[in-house]
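> forwarded from #structure-qc
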């Protein structure tokens, strides 16, 4: 998969994309990432990217021209659906605005995104985007949660990290992403490592028993219990919060 990221702050991506699983995903060729500096597409000799909102709201908004120019340069074709212009959306990679107004990023959406060979992510700043970017350039809008960040960069990093770990081969044999929380619709249950006893607190004996089937059944039971306790909403409308009490 290839991911293009349009941002006013390219340096923010340095550390997170150069460590651990994201680094390995790139080294093994499962993922490539290109960071594009929005400032280079700014308007005029000052390369302006923002301006005051019409109508007098506070703050600044990202202008449409630099963002459209950046994305059209990245994809090397017209992609803005201007009046009288047609763009065949089926031939475009998803062009995703990171915005608190977008659809929530869930594990199901992460898996859906991971099916695409290419994604374009656009990071907002200031008070966000001119509405024409949303309407006539973006093909999707994604939020990482019901809170407001200062910019889309951290949101883009979260999205890239979540997508990278479900790409085939990226986690290797270390661990299956299918055991993670949300993958099966449940939270993951408790996990333990050495030592078997720490300051009087023991690892549940079943995990040391070597009975793989019983261990799998225990894990499933614990995952259900934890999900009932913490996120009964994941179990659907029939699961009542009172069910969380059956410990
Ligand atoms: N005025 C905007 C609004 O109320 O929707 C918020 C703008 S926010 C200060 C600046 C940028 O941060 C946004 O354009 C977006 O790119 C990013 N951002 C903030 N919160 C986000 C979230 N929860 N998910 C994804 N991106 C977010």
């Amino acid at each position: 998969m290839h991911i293009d990221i349009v941002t006013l702050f390219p340096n923010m991506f340095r550390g997170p994309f150069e460590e651990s699983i994201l680094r390995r995903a790139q080294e093994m060729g499962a993922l490539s990432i290109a960071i594009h500096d929005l400032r280079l597409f700014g308007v005029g000799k000052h390369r302006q990217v923002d301006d005051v909102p019409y109508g007098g709201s506070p703050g600044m908004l990202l202008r449409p021209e630099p963002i459209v120019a950046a994305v059209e340069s990245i994809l090397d074709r017209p992609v803005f659906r201007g009046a009288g212009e047609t763009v065949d959306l089926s031939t475009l990679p998803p062009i995703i605005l990171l915005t608190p107004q977008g659809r929530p990023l869930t594990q199901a959406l992460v898996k859906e995104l991971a099916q695409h060979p290419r994604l374009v992510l656009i990071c907002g700043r200031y008070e966000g985007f001119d509405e024409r970017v949303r309407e006539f350039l973006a093909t999707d809008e994604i939020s990482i949660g019901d809170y407001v960040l200062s910019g889309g960069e951290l949101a883009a990093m979260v999205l890239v990290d979540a997508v990278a770990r479900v790409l085939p081969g990226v986690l290797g044999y270390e661990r299956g992403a299918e055991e993670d929380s949300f993958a099966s619709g449940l939270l993951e249950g408790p996990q333990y490592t050495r030592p078997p006893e720490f300051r009087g607190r023991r690892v549940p004996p079943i995990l040391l028993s070597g009975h793989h089937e019983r261990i799998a059944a225990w894990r499933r039971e614990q995952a259900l219990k934890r999900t009932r306790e913490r996120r009964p909403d994941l179990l659907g409308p029939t699961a009542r919060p009172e069910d969380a009490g059956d410990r």
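QC bot note: Helices lie at 14-17, 20-27, 64-75, 107-114, 131-136, 153-164, 212-230. Confidence is low (pLDDT under 50) at residues 241-247.
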